[in-house]
């Protein structure tokens, strides 16, 4: 473990020196892009570039790299939320899936609402900064029962602002494996609070910190040695997968992220999160009171 961390830290230092020395850009105008330090105003286009590059292979790579486990985590999130217009209600729910990419969470939430509650009315907006990822989602939508339905909309939007989404307009805000890519995560959380109705639910599924040292060692070894290599062999794109691994390392731990959700104004029930697979991923919940 020590070996891996040392070499990661060495790399961090080297890359920071490579990218962080522009005297024209002040430190408070810099942010991280994986282990690199870059000007804040460049991060959005760098992230966009990563997802444009992986979009066409994103779903298959997700299955290969997580050994299919991401499907179990997403299913768990959807069942935990248990959303859907109840049979005795006449108020459809308005879902927003931010950084929705190819639509796993969006289709899953609508399917759950339909299968469990016979809900054929609730609406879904899939918002993502990347048009190629949205195009993959819209293509997948054509082979679902929501094809050409006005109930589902794909919108190009930066989750930090969500300019096209009105205040207090959504019942459920979900984001899966997206928020760690934001330049300003707190701005994303503040925006989630803005667009939710009072009583609305914020739910985030994201990679997190493993709570067991031995498992963390195996996980880090797998992440840093195998994932970029798999990216190279399967998608011919080592750099994008290197970024994805590094961005996981840079994301705040469970407690810190729960505090950021509180800071945005949400009520956080209990400790605020549930670890999945020993903390490899975690679900954070907030309620707008
Ligand atoms: C790892 S993918 C996750 C996709 C999907 N939610 C899933 O779980 O399969 C991350 C997504 O976040 C999107 N993204 C990154 N930064 C964003 C931002 N600032 N606003 C909205 N979407 C963003 C990317 O374009 C990409 O589609």
From TrEMBL:
Annotated localization: Mitochondrion inner membrane
Membrane disposition: Peripheral membrane protein
Gene coding for it: COQ5
Pfam entry (one): Ubie_methyltran
Role played: Methyltransferase required for the conversion of 2-polyprenyl-6-methoxy-1,4-benzoquinol (DDMQH2) to 2-polyprenyl-3-methyl-6-methoxy-1,4-benzoquinol (DMQH2).
HAMAP family named in the record: MenG_UbiE_methyltr
Organismal lineage: Eukaryota, Fungi, Dikarya, Ascomycota, Saccharomycotina
EC numbers: 2.1.1.201
Subunit structure of this chain's protein: Component of a multi-subunit COQ enzyme complex, composed of at least COQ3, COQ4, COQ5, COQ6, COQ7 and COQ9.
Annotated protein name in UniProt: 2-methoxy-6-polyprenyl-1,4-benzoquinol methylase, mitochondrial
Native source organism of the sequence: Ogataea philodendri
Keyword terms: Membrane, Methyltransferase, Mitochondrion, Mitochondrion inner membrane, S-adenosyl-L-methionine, Transferase, Ubiquinone biosynthesis
A GO biological-process term: methylation
Superkingdom of the organism of origin: Eukaryota
């Amino acid at each position: 473990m020590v070996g891996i961390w040392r070499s990661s830290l060495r790399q961090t230092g080297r890359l920071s020196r490579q990218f962080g020395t522009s005297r024209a850009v002040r430190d408070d105008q810099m942010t991280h892009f994986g282990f690199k330090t870059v000007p804040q105003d460049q991060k959005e286009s760098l992230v966009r570039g990563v997802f444009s590059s992986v979009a066409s292979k994103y779903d298959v790579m997700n299955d290969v790299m997580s050994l299919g486990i991401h499907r179990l985590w997403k299913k768990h999130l959807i069942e935990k939320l248990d959303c859907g217009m109840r049979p005795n209600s006449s108020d459809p729910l308005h879902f927003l899936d931010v950084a929705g990419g190819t639509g796993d969470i969006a289709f899953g939430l609508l399917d759950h609402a339909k299968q469990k509650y016979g809900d054929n009315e609730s609406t879904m907006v899939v918002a993502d900064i990347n048009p190629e990822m949205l195009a993959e989602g819209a293509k997948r939508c054509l082979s679902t029962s929501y094809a050409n339905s006005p109930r589902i909309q794909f919108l190009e939007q930066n989750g930090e602002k969500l300019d096209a989404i009105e205040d207090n307009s959504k019942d459920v805000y979900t984001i899966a494996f997206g928020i760690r890519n934001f330049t300003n995560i707190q701005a994303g959380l503040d925006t989630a609070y803005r667009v939710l109705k009072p009583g609305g639910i914020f739910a985030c599924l994201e990679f997190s910190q493993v709570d067991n040292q031995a498992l963390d060692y195996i996980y880090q070894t797998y992440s840093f040695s195998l994932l970029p290599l798999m990216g190279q062999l399967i998608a011919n794109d080592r750099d994008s997968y290197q970024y994805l691994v590094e961005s996981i390392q840079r994301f705040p731990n469970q407690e810190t992220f729960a505090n950021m959700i509180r800071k945005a104004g949400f009520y956080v029930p209990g400790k605020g999160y549930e670890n999945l697979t020993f903390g490899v991923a975690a679900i954070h919940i907030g309620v707008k009171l």
